[in-house]
Every structure is written in structure tokens, then in C-alpha cells.
Write a sequence for this structure.
């Protein structure tokens, strides 16, 4: 278990800063359009980091935190179509590219609506906190433009995806790490006539059971899973144990919140409701052995707010890793 990051490096100085801060493993999102990716594109990105003695382990594909209508691969979860078939085949080819570049895995989201948030709130020193209040979610938008999708419909689409992508992932030994829909809004609850089946813990239990493979697992976002719980301060550790004991955690987004299901704020790791030291010890207990990564950070003042926020969290993670090593 070691520190990593998904911080999008804009230039060589960003990569050098990671090396200086002791971050030697990364997950990245490519700048090039997905249609232009090749194995050589991924190898070039790998080599760019390797020059700084940093290992590119994973990539994000364009099944992201945005609406399915905005993602290049968004048709995959919009239902049967020629576009879906083409994009699934392209994703299978992307798995082959990742293997050719020596990567460990691929991170992706299954969400039609993208991340949901309401008005921000403010924390210490006036830091801007990404927030969500279910009661304040905009109800005037109507049905999702890509069409309604209840729970059965979503599971049919997810099953189709897994049965096409996972045999290729198994053949090429690429871990497919699914990120939660951020946030979960409850069981049996829809928004804009769409069920967020992968916003809640039981949805991920079903996902890993639906296609039983050592390459079908989670990009485990500690923040997202905490947001889906009534009492994350007590419940999150058993969630870690459930998936960790089954070797289904391929990546960890390490962030904290205040609140829980239906009402939360994203905060600095040292001030939230989750005991992050206890959480990291739990990951260690279940044998998790990959990256511990900062995720969202509060909005700070200054010229490089995200750089500063991530650097703060790298230091925090370094210290916790040292604490559990003794």
C-alpha cells in the first residue's frame, strides 16, 4: 500500500513536483481524444512519467463523472444502439492498449447523470466545500435527455457491459475499477427518472457478483461510500472489509466528509467524520496493496489552489502510512 495520485499533470514541472513530494505512482486522464488513443500514445505517457521515476499504473477512460451525453463513450450505458456496439468494441481495444503499455488497470464510472452537487458551503478559513443536500436538488429539469432508466434497465445495461468487456480484461489481465456514482441518493430513489444503482453499497455488491472475476472490482472512493451511509463514522470500516476481504479494491480515493446520506460536505481529511487513520488501518488489515490517492480537495485561495490542496493531502497520507507501518 503506497501513495499515488490522479492529479492531472499539465506540464513537466507538475510531474517533477510529484517526484519531489514522494509520489511515485499515478493514474492519469489522457489529454488526447479517445478516438486518437493508441498503444503508442499510452506508452509515451508511461515513459514521460518514468523519466521522473514515477510509474503510470492506471488510466481513466471517457466513462467519467460527467453526464453520459458528454462523454465520448457515454453511449455504452444509454441502451442498445450501433453507437453502443462501436464504443464497447473501442473500449475492448483500449484494454488491449493498456496491456501493451504495461498498465495495471482502467478506472471508469457508470453514471448517466454525472456527479450531483448543490450550492457549495464554506469551511475553515473560508475554503469552498463541495456540498450536496438532497432536499435542495433541482427538481425542475425533467426526465434525463438520454431517456428514463429504472433499476432493471440499468442492470441490464451493466450486465451487457460486463459480459463484453470482462473477458477481454481477463485475457489481458487488466483490472477494471468502477467508481461509485457520486453521490448515492438512497435505495429505490430516482432522479430525473434515472436510478443511481451504483451510488449505494449494495449496488457494488451486486456489481462484483454479476461477473465474478479477479479483474472486476472497485475504484473505492472513501468519500463516495461514506456519502451513501447514514452514519459513516461507524459504518464505513465494515464496507472496506466487505470489498477488501474479497480482493475487489483496485484503487482508493482517500477523502473525508462531514454528514452522510442526503446531506454532506467534502472537507479536509483531518476534519471529517471518518477516522482516516482507522480507515487506512482497515485497508491494511484486509490486505489492500495498491495506491492511496487524494481525491477532491476543498477550494483554497491563491494562485495554485488545487496544487496546494493536493500537496497538503500527500503529506497527510505520508504521515498516516508511516503511522500504520509501526
Amino acid at each position: 500500500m503506497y501513495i499515488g495520485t490522479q492529479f492531472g499533470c499539465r506540464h513537466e514541472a507538475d510531474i517533477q513536483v510529484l517526484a519531489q513530494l514522494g509520489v511515485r505512482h499515478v493514474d492519469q486522464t489522457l489529454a488526447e481524444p479517445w478516438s486518437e488513443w493508441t498503444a503508442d500514445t499510452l506508452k509515451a505517457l508511461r515513459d514521460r512519467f518514468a523519466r521522473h521515476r514515477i510509474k503510470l499504473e492506471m488510466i481513466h477512460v471517457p466513462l467519467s463523472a460527467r453526464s453520459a451525453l458528454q462523454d465520448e463513450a457515454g453511449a455504452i450505458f444509454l441502451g442498445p444502439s450501433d453507437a453502443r456496439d462501436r464504443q464497447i468494441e473501442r473500449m475492448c481495444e483500449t484494454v488491449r492498449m493498456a496491456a501493451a503499455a504495461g498498465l495495471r488497470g482502467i478506472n471508469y464510472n457508470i453514471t448517466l447523470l454525472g456527479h450531483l452537487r448543490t450550492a457549495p458551503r464554506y469551511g475553515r478559513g473560508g475554503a469552498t466545500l463541495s456540498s450536496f443536500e438532497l432536499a435542495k436538488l433541482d427538481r425542475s429539469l425533467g426526465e434525463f435527455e438520454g431517456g428514463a432508466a429504472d433499476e432493471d434497465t440499468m442492470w441490464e445495461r451493466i450486465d451487457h457491459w460486463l459480459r463484453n468487456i470482462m473477458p477481454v480484461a481477463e485475457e489481458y489481465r487488466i483490472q477494471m475499477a468502477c467508481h461509485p456514482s457520486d453521490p448515492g441518493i438512497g435505495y429505490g430513489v430516482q432522479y430525473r427518472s434515472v436510478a443511481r444503482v451504483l451510488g449505494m453499497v449494495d449496488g457494488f455488491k451486486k456489481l462484483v457478483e454479476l461477473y465474478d472475476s479477479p479483474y472486476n472490482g472497485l475504484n473505492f472512493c472513501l468519500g463516495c461510500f461514506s456519502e451513501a451511509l447514514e452514519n459513516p463514522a461507524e459504518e464505513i470500516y465494515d464496507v472496506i472489509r466487505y470489498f477488501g476481504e474479497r480482493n475487489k479494491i483496485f484503487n482508493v480515493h482517500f477523502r473525508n466528509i462531514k454528514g452522510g446520506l442526503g446531506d454532506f460536505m467534502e472537507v479536509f481529511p483531518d476534519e471529517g467524520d471518518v477516522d482516516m487513520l482507522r480507515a487506512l488501518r482497515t485497508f491494511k488489515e484486509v490486505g489492500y496493496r495498491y495506491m492511496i490517492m487524494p481525491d477532491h480537495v476543498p477550494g483554497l485561495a491563491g494562485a495554485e489552489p488545487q496544487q496546494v490542496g493536493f500537496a497538503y493531502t500527500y503529506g497527510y497520507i505520508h504521515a498516516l502510512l508511516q503511522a500504520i507501518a509501526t
User: Anything to note?
Assistant: The longest helix spans residues 151-172. The two ends are 14 Å apart (CA to CA). The mean pLDDT is 96.
